[in-house]
Specification:
- It is a single chain.
- It contains two helices and six strands; from the N terminus they run H-E-E-H-E-E-E-E.
- With 128 residues, it is an alpha+beta fold.
- It has a single domain, classed as Hotdog Thioesterase (Thiol Ester Dehydrase, Chain A).
- It has a six-stranded antiparallel beta sheet.
- A hairpin with a 2-residue loop joins strand 4 and strand 5.
- The chain is globular and about 45 Å long.
Length: 128
Amino acid sequence: MNMYTHNNIDRQLCGTPIEFKNGFSQVKLLTTKKMIVDNYNLVHGGFVFGLADFAAMLAVNDPNVVLSSASVKFLKPVQIDEVLTAEAHVISVDGKKQNVHVKVLSHKEVVFEGDFVCFVLKKHVLDK
C-alpha cells in the first residue's frame, strides 16, 4: 500500500511507519536526547502526541486528511531511549469524518491512549 499522507514528516521526531493498511497503522519512534525536558530524562508529551497523531493520519491515509480534535490520556511517563509503538485503528467512518483510536506502547505497556477525530477534505486545507 502506498503512503498518501504526511510524506515529508520528520521520522526522527514523529516516528517511522512499520505497517499500514486500510484503517490501520503501526508507527515506531525511538525517543532521543532532543526530546527530554529535565534531568530525569522525561520526554515531552508533545512528541508522544505527535507519534499518535501521525499514526492516526496514516490509518486514514488520504492526502487531504486533517485532525479536528483529540481526546487523549497520558498514562505513564516516557524517558529517553524508549522505543514507542503507536497502533491506530479507524473505529468509524461517517462521510468525511473518521474516528481513530490510538494506543502508544512502551515495553508492552500502554503509555498513551486517545481518540482522534479526522476529516478528509475535498482539497488540501491550505489550497485556495
